[in-house]
Amino acid sequence: MSQFVHEIVVGEKHEGSYTLELINMLGKGAQRVIVKAHGRNISKAVYVTESVRRLTGDKIGYGKIKIYSTEVGELKEEKSVPVIEIEVINLGVKPQS
After folding, report:
1. How many structural domains are present in the chain?
2. Neighbouring C-beta atoms of residue 28, cutoff 10 Å
3. Residue by residue, what is the 3-state secondary structure of the chain?
4. Cβ atoms within 10 A of the Cβ of 33, count?
5. What are the φ and ψ backbone dihedral angles of 72, each rounded to 5 degrees?
6. Structural domain includes residue 16
7. Which end of the chain has fewer beta carbons closer than 10 Å to its terminal beta carbon, N or C?
8. Domain that holds residue 20
9. Tens digits of residue pLDDT in 82-93
């Protein structure tokens, strides 16, 4: 696979769905996957990445972890929502030249 960065946005589905999606992406040769979540789903994103790390042993690692907030809603009713982006790196895949 190329150096394309894949992204999983964690939402309302069960953790197992995202865990399986991440394992499938890494198994198909994805070198880097960004797991992203907003608000209440942040803990779910952390659970998913840690579950996959435990399942795969030393075959994945973490890259950059970004934490920030974004404004959502209408102009007069905007509110700040926290966001996390966790970069998961497939250590079993050699970068292509």
Report:
1. 1
2. 11
3. CCCCCEEEEECCCCHHHHHHHHHHHHHCCCCEEEEEEEHHHHHHHHHHHHHHHHHHHHHEEEEEEEEEEEEECCHHHCEEEEEEEEEEEECCCCCCC
4. 22
5. -130, 155
6. yes
7. C
8. 6-90
9. 999 999 999 986
Short-list 19, 87, 4, 6, CA closest to 56: 19
Contact 7, 30 (CB under 8 A): no
Q: CATH no. for residue 34?
A: 3.30.110.20
- 55 inside domain: yes
Please check whether residue 61 lies inside any domain of the structure: yes
In a domain, 96, yes or no: no
Burial of residue 22 (CB within 10 Å: 0-12, 13-18, 19+) is buried
Through-space distance between the first and last CA atoms of the chain, rounded to whole angstroms: 11
